[in-house]
Amino acid sequence: MQLSMLLEDFAVIQEDTEVPGLSCDTRTLCPGEVFFALAGPEGNSFHYVAQAIAKGASAIVYDPLRVNSEHFSETDACRLIAIENLYLHLGDIAARFYGQPSDTIQIIGITGTNGKTSCSQFLGQLLQHCAIVGTLGWGRWGQLTMTGYTTPDALMTQRLLAECQKLKCSTVAMEVSSHGIAEHRIAGIRFHGAVLTNISRDHLDYHGSMAAYIDTKKRLFARSELQFAVINLDDALSEEFIAVVAPQTKIWGYVVNQKLPVANIDELIYTENIVHHSNGLTFDVCWREQRATLYSPLYGSFNIENLLAVISVMLALDYSLNEIANRLALLKPVNGRMQRLGDQESALIFVDYAHTPDALEKALASARLHCQRELWVVFGCGGDRDTGKRAEMGKFAEAYADHLIITDDNPRSEEPGRIVQDILSGCRSKDITVIHDRKEAIFQAVTQANKEDCVLIAGKGHEQYQEYQNQKLPFCDVDVVMQALSSRSFH
After folding, report:
1. For a designed S-S bond to 62, which of 67, 112, 256, 366 qualifies (C-beta 3.0 to 4.6 A apart)?
2. In angstroms, how far apart are the furthest CA atoms of the chain?
C-alpha cells in the first residue's frame, strides 16, 4: 500500500512510498516499515525515533500534541509525519492497511471483570472455524500463540485479525479489556456481537473510580454496528448496560434460575435443575418453549453463568439448542480456570485465576459446593495494583475457608509483608497462616489436606511466572501442586 493511501484523510504526504508494514516497536521493526512513535507514560517516544530510522523506517508518524518534535534531529524532518490525536486513529489506519478484516469476520467482543477468558476459550472450542484473541494467546483453540496482552495494541490486533482471515476463520472470540477500550486498541474493529459477563471491582489503580471503569466497559455496547448484545441479567449493573445498547441491536439476556420476563430485552435464556457433582455440572437450559439438559465437565456456579453467555452467543448465531447441548458435553476446561487436579485418592484441588474480590468469592463458593469436609485456601494479592481490594479478598477468604494460608502473588516492586498486612486488615481472626514462599504454602495445604477436603489455590491460574522486583521467575501453580501430590499419600 502507498503511504498516501494509508494516511489519506489523516495527513498530506509530499513524497510517496510503498509501505510493506507497520510497527510501533523498534525491536521488531523491519526496513521500509512505517514507525508510529506513540507517547509512552513519560512522553518519551522520541528516544525511539533514532532507533527506528537506523533500522530503516520509511516514515515516522507521531502526535504533535503528545510528542515534542524539537527533540528530533533536523536531518530527520523529512521523515516525520504529524497526526494529532494519533492514538484515536491508529486502529483505523491499521485496519486500512490490513484490508478491514473485521468486515469479513464475525468478531464477538467479550468484556467484564471475570469470565472473559473462559467464555472466549469455550467459544473457540464450540464454534465452527473460530479463532481466539485473548489472555491465553491468539489463534485456533489448542494452537494459541502468546501475545502478552488480553487485548493487544491496535496495530497487533488488526494484524492478528488479518492472520485469522488467512486461517479461514469466520468468527473470532475476542477478549476486550477495559484498558483495551480506554486506549482505543479496538478502534477500527466492527464487532458483530458483544458479551457482558459481570462487573465488579478491578483496575481502579488505572481507571481511578468504579464509575470510570463501568463507563469504559459500556462503550463496547453502545456501538451502532452490533448485531446482538448478550447481557448477564444477574449482574446488578445489567440495566445500565442494556440502556446504552443501540435500538437496532438485538439484546439476549441470560439469568440463573429465573423465569420471570425481563423488560427491554428480546430473548431470555435461563436455567433449572442445577446439580453440582464430582465430575462437573448438569442443568436444564430454557429458551422460548425449548428445553435441553446439559452436562459439562466444569465446576462452580460462576461457570454456569459463563456457559449461559456462550449458549446465548451460539443461539444468536443460529445454532440450535440441541446442537449446543451436544457440543457442550465435549467441552474441555480452561487451564487455570477452576482447573481440577488430583484424583479419588487425594483432596479435591482447584487452581483458579481469581484475583479480584468477586472472582475469589465465587471460586470459594464453588469450591464449597464440592467440598465434603474442610476447605483450604491459598492466595495472595499482586503488588503495584489496586490496594483497596486486598482487605475485601481477605474478608471473603476468611469467611469461607476452614484453613487459610496467605502467600505471595506477584509482589512486583512492593514489599510482600505490606501486601499481606493489607489482606489481614480485612480478617478478624489472628489464627491465619502466612507463608511468603508460594511453593511452601501450596505444599503445606496439599500435603496436610484430608482426601475428603478441598483445596483452592487462587490468584495466578495459568501464569508461568512469579514477579519479584521486576524480575519474572519461573513458577507454575499447577506444577507445584503435582509435585506436592507426588510427595505424599492421603489419609
Report:
1. 67
2. 79
